[in-house]
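Encode chain A's predicted structure.
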Amino acid sequence: MAKKRWLEFIFIFIVCIVLITKKEKIFFLSETHYLQMDNGYYLNVFTDDTKRINDEEGIIKMNSLNDYLYAEVENAGKYREFVLKVYIDYEEVAIKINGHSYNSFYFSLNDKSLEQISFRLPNNIDESKRHKLTVFLISGANINAGNLSENLTNSYSIVLDYLLLFECSDSFIDLDDEYTSIETLNNKSYQGLLFNIDYSKGESNKLPPKEITIESGEKIKLAYRVGGYEDTECYAIILMINWNAVKIDNQFYKLVKTDKGKVGYGEFLLQIPLNEGKYEVTGWVIPNPFNENKLNLFPLDSSYRFTINVVKKGCENEM
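Encoded structure for chain A:
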């Protein structure tokens, strides 16, 4: 009995530390989400069979594509605007909600409110294969980093990467898994994904500017640093502009390889939209993306979001 009370005390102490250190964004992935949240939001994904509690974290099981999936979102602390997105095998798909198809489903929640969104996957997914299902909950869908007085943030989303199994699945989907080896920065320490336009390989891990002004239709060179995870050397990078999928080197997911535990460096050209306006640039990194044995579920690390201000040709020099 004394040992049990001691273990309960340790659990409560750990929960308190998490609540303090994660004050800005608190997420719970099982029944523990009913703990009080002061300022944050959480995401849980389940089917009718799992009923909110998944015994095998990181795995979603479906009988067929006729089954519904549920995204349960709880919000606390303030009003927030969200966007919900779903990727299959690291490519954006349209989900069906109430008879309509959405690549990006926008909704908002007030303080102390909960929304359960039921959706179906598109019917062109091969049920005989196992797939990767990635669910994105992005906060601040109505905000541009360039308009804020606060510092840049990489705490604006909960993205969960699952192994998707159908009743008749007998093998993993055959995907393009050719990795590009990128330069390893042995003297740099970072874990996650970082984009910028103005650092060299020798500089520190500089954050991007809040806003970049560039003429419509142009291309800019983005540099990235990725990696730093001790248990893998393989990564997938996903990029969005205004919550829409964007290709990196003609791929919707860029596969790169660097040394285990080390930060890698790469560059690519980003096509700027033709229409004027402000666009939010965001990205996520998936360590060891094609691992079928990953049962532990943790939110993916995101890049620091920044804004591209697209202006007419010839206007940039006038500003």
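The radius of gyration is 20 Å.
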